[in-house]
Structures are given as C-alpha cells and as structure tokens.
Design goal:
heterodimer, A: 372 residues, alpha/beta, Alpha-Beta Plaits, 3 domains, 6-stranded mixed sheet, 4-stranded antiparallel sheet, B: 267 residues, mainly alpha, 79% helix, 1% strand
C-alpha cells in the first residue's frame, strides 16, 4: 500500500477502492484542529477508467396534451393525444475520477433528467451509462452506497426532528460503522459549521441552514460520486460561497467525482474547470470554461474612462453603454490590443480596462445561438 | 440481519422523536381510534338490550368484549401507508428512498411498529377503562391466548403487505383516494369491523372467508373472545399463512412494476 498524503488530485484508480483514514494535525497558521485525510490505495489500482461514462444517452417522455377548455377536456376523454418530449437527446461525455464538472443549461435543458438517470432514479430510453462500473438504474446496493444526489429543491431530512436524528437514521441505512460516522460527522460539522443547527428541529432552520444539513446528510456515507442539482438555489451570497468552498474541500479531501448543475455562474467559475453545456437535450459544449468563453465570444469588452462626456468612440468599436464618464466598448477579440493602443494614443484616457464578457452573457449567447 | 436490526432501532428513535413533537395531534388521533369501535359497541349493546339481551348468538357482554378487543386488534394491524404514498411520490420523498441501499418497506414497517409500541400502552389503558364501564364477557381458553400471538403477528403482516401493495396504486394514478375508499368500505363490512361476521347472512360469510379482510381483524378478535374451536383457529392461521404468501408475492411484483413506471415517466 502506498500512502498519498493530504491531497487527492485526479486519482488513477477507481475511487471505490479507496479506504480512508483520518488523523488530526494542528495547522501552524490558525492553530485550528483540522482533520486530514490520508488516502490509502488498495494494492491493485484499476487503470484510468472513467468514474462516469455516458454514451448516446436518451430520454423520451410521453406526455398527454390537450387544449384548454371544456370541449377539449371532453375530447380528451375519447381520444388522448400524446406528445413525445425528447428531454435528453443523445448526449455523451465522460468524467474522470476526482473531476468536478459543471453541467449547464437553461431550465428544461435536460440537466435534472440526466442526473436522475445517472443516479438510478430514471430508466433511459436509450444509450449507455456506467457510474463506477455500475449500471445506475439496476440500483445495486454496492452502487447506491457510493453515490449521492443532492437536490436543492427537495428535502430528505425529517421535518419535525433535529437533523442529528435524521443523520443517525442514515447511519443505520448505510450501515456506517460508528467510529467512521463520528469522524465524518465531526468533519462535516466543522466544515459546514453545523454545530448550532444539529439539535434544532429541521422545520426551525432557515433555508440556508437546512441546505447545509441536507448536504451533510447526503455525504455521511462518504460517496465517491456526488451529483449536485442546484445545491445553492435560493441561498444568499455568503451561504452560496460557503457551500461552494465546502464542495471544493470535499472533492479535494476524498477525491470524489462531482457533477454539479447550477444557475449561478459564480458556482461554476469557482468550482469547475470543465463545463458541459446542454440545451434542448443536446450537448452544445464540453471543455474548459475558458474555452467556452473563447469559443462563444468573438468580442472583448473595453471600458474607457474619459473626461469628455460627448466623445465619439464609434470608430473604435461598438459603444454598448455610457455612464459617469465610463464608455463600454465591444471590440473583436483579435483586434483588442490594436484598439487599446489607438485609444490610449488618441484620447486623454483616465482609465482603461479590458475584460472578457461576463460568463452569464456568454452562456446566454450560447443558448441564443442554438435557439435561432 | 444485524444491519436491519439497527435500522429498526434507529427508526424507532426517529418515530418516537417525531411523535412526541405533536402530542396534541397524537391524542386526537388516538381518540379517533377509540371512538369508532365505541360507537359500534354502544349501537350493538342497545340493539341487544332491546332484543332481550342478545342479537344472534352475541350477548350484550360479548358485544362489549368483541368491540373492545377489536379496538386493540385493529390497533395492532392498522396502517396509514395508503394515505402517504401519493404524497411521497408527489413531493419527491420516494426518490430519496430509492437512492438508499435498503428496500423502503423496512423503514415503513419499522415506523409502523414503533409508533404502535409507543401508543399501545395507552390503548390498553383505554380498553381497561371501557371494560369497567361495559362489563365485557371475554373468556378465551389458554390455548387461544397462545394462538393469538401468531394470529396477531400474521394479521399485522398480511394487512401491512396488502395495504403497502395497494398504496402503490399511486404509481399509476393520481386518484388514489377512490381506490382507498373502495378498500375501506370492503374492509368495514368484510373484516368484522362494523359487526361480528357471524351475524351476517351466510353468503357474505363465505365471501369474507375467501377474502383477506377477515383474517386481519375479525379472526384474532373472535379467537381472543374465546368463540373459536381449535379447528377453526387452525383454519384461520392457515388462511392467514396463505394470505401472507399471496401478499408477499403481490408486494414484490407490484413494487417492481411500480418502480419501473416511476423511473419511466419521471421520478
């Protein structure tokens, strides 16, 4: 057995073959007790097979439809019209063990449907999926023990009792040895700052507090594959940031594979180097976040600050907005340097800033292109 | 097995913690459980008194005994799963259950047993109180008391599995209340809940013997009342065993089909 201390980067063997041990050290800077994970790898690592493999995955829902109104209602008694909805329409991608990938798309793009197929809740219409070598919808116990699905809009905790009681129930359900459970719980309590929340009935917690407890409940069994469906939805910015930091830390400590959907680009930017974008059930983009920006934005934004409120900058680029002496220009990416030079040479520039379009805009543009 | 035992213990704690949160609603729920047999008891006692002290082969005291025991037996075999399943599907709780590496029926059985363990002492107290007021005549021989242990266990299991199966109608339709209503009407008449089955015309008694309802309520009551012969008791236990097998097979088939539907149309 080889010891690989502290950090699990992209591991070269399947995460389920990890055994985890914990020891405590005091970090010199903060003198705070931090639990470290030491990852002990099993003797025979299986070579880099993907943690998640998806190939030509499809899901077609058959939905009954009818027009509004009484006549239509009566008609539907005799003859029901059914419509096929291609929720997921042939997507393929792989996730390496230990990877965090952002899964993006507008509402109804098929993100949740895909996550449900990956976690075994939905049976696909066609296509192949393996997660840690298992076919998810067989729902084998060995598979279920290694995964988790957190749904930001659903709760698993029992409403009327303290979260700690629900945690104990999960301990029994997952058959987590008591010592392991204690360690994990201590650690989650520290990372998510759960201490003051654990003994209050869940119904008395705020949305953010409840979400932290939900996430803890979903991770007590130390799953090596984590599906997060909008884990920060409805939370304030501070809470979003805390949960984001936690997800990064969990991934780092356990080498867990994480697939995350979110409507908050800040989540994605903070956590995911790679993003997979889907729209209308089809794959639009799969690659580095930075490439997404390059691929879908032919422009950069230049913000110029001038004394003159009536300057005509149209010869430099498209003037998108003006406020308080700040002109915002959109220029072709390739000409950015050249135009910047000209601006500085020609005009009494007070300040100048070159930036990529915000990621929200990029994503919006991606979906708009696809829609047209 | 050890893992399951731990799950049951933990579920007991969870159920207990949830129940004590709502003492008022718990009390109301228990009053409801007492009231229904009490109404039948009073009605039948009155009818018996006006009819010269008995109706059919039941005396006033036996009616009292019948309905007091019925209250206890019904408490043992009662489930509330049929009210819950649709809600679970609609609110997504079933998805969480399906993500767990254990069959969800275990949590339900454990929850059911736990809440009964907690409420049963109160029901016994109520039964004792009613006995003081209504002077029931209950005279089971010793063997009948012994036989009532497997009879009660089987009654619980059969009713639990059947109602768990029926609850899964929610996979196919959103109108489960119609199905529940039909079931409860059948249950009311054919289980012996509204009146002892021996007071019904014989065709109905035959139907009742062929269906499961009687074996989940009426049979253990009559056994404990001391009205059954050893042969009748054995026949009853046999019928319960048959229904246990049937309901076990049903629950497996329907669950599998239900989950297939659920995972096809959208969990």
């Amino acid at each position: 057995m080889a010891l690989n201390k502290w950090q699990a980067t992209v591991p070269d063997c399947k995460p389920q073959s990890f055994k985890l041990a914990i020891n405590r050290v005091i970090t010199s800077s903060t003198a705070r007790i931090v639990k470290r994970f030491v990852i002990i790898r099993n003797a025979k690592p299986t070579m880099t097979s993907p943690a998640i493999h998806i190939s030509d995955l499809r899901k077609i829902y058959v939905v009954a439809e009818r027009e509004a109104g009484v006549m239509a209602a009566l008609q539907s008694l005799v003859h029901r019209r059914a419509e096929e909805v291609h929720a997921v329409d042939g997507i393929s991608f792989d996730l390496a063990p230990g990877e965090i990938v952002g899964f993006l798309g507008p509402n109804g793009a098929g993100k949740t449907t895909t996550l449900k197929m990956l976690s075994g809740l939905l049976h696909p219409t066609a296509g192949k999926v393996t997660v840690l070598g298992h076919v998810p919808w067989k729902r084998e116990k060995a598979f279920l023990r290694q995964i988790t699905l957190v749904m930001g809009q659903r709760n698993q905790l029992v409403w009327d009792i303290p979260a700690l009681d629900s945690f104990e129930l999960n301990r029994a359900i997952y058959r987590i040895p008591v010592a392991d459970y204690r360690h994990t719980l201590d650690e989650l309590t520290e990372l998510l700052e759960l201490e003051p929340l654990l003994r209050k009935p869940v119904r008395n917690l705020s949305l953010g507090e409840r979400m932290k407890c939900e996430i803890a409940a979903a991770l007590l069994h130390r799953p090596s594959v984590v599906f997060l469906d909008e884990p920060t939805i409805g939370l304030d910015v501070t809470m979003q940031r805390r949960i984001r930091a936690f997800i990064a830390e969990y991934n780092r400590r356990l080498g867990a594979t994480v697939l995350l959907t979110s409507h908050y680009m800040a989540d994605v930017e903070a956590l995911c180097r790679r993003v997979v974008v889907i729209h209308h059930g089809r794959l639009l983009f799969d690659g580095d976040l930075s490439n997404l920006v390059q691929k879908f934005t032919a422009h950069k934004t230049i913000v110029v600050q001038l004394e003159d409120p009536q300057a005509d900058l149209r010869s430099y680029g498209e003037v998108v907005s003006y406020a308080d002496g700040h002109y915002t220009l959109q220029v072709p990416r390739a000409e950015t340097a050249h135009i910047t030079e000209r601006l500085l040479a020609d005009l009494p520039v007070i300040d100048l800033l070159v930036e990529d379009s915000p990621i929200e805009e990029v994503i919006e543009r991606v979906f708009a292109q696809e829609g047209s | 097995m050890k893992g399951l035992a731990e799950l049951y213990v933990q579920q007991f704690k969870t159920t207990f913690a949830s129940m004590v949160q709502y003492r008022a609603s718990l009390a109301i729920w228990m009053i409801g459980h007492v009231l229904e047999p009490l109404v039948y008891l009073i009605v039948w006692s009155t009818v018996a008194n006006t009819g010269g002290g008995s109706v059919g082969d039941y005396t006033t005291g036996e009616f009292a005994g019948y309905f007091i025991l019925l209250m206890l037996v019904n408490h043992v075999s009662y489930t509330w799963i049929m009210y819950e399943f649709e809600y679970r599907i609609r609110e997504g709780f079933l998805s969480f259950a399906l993500l767990k590496p254990v069959h969800p029926i275990h949590s339900d059985i454990a929850d059911n047993l736990s809440s009964k363990l907690i409420t049963f002492p109160f029901m016994l107290l109520v039964a004792a109180g009613l006995a003081l007021i209504f002077h029931p005549s209950i005279s089971p021989p010793l063997w009948a008391i012994v036989a009532s242990i497997p009879a009660l266990l089987l009654a619980f299991l059969v009713r639990f599995l059947l109602e768990w199966t029926l609850a899964q109608a929610a996979f196919w339709t959103t109108r489960v209340s119609a199905i529940n209503q039909t079931y409860f009407v059948l249950m009311l008449f054919l289980s012996g809940q509204i009146a002892p089955l021996t007071l019904f015309p014989s065709p109905i008694q035959t139907v009742a013997a062929l269906l499961p309802f009687r074996w989940t309520i009426g049979f253990p009551v009559e056994l404990l009342l001391g009205r059954l012969s050893p042969v009748e008791a054995l026949t009853g236990l046999g019928a319960q065993a048959v229904w246990l097998v049937v309901s076990f097979v049903l629950v497996r088939i329907v669950w599998r089909a239900g989950v297939r539907i659920y995972s096809a149309v959208g969990a």
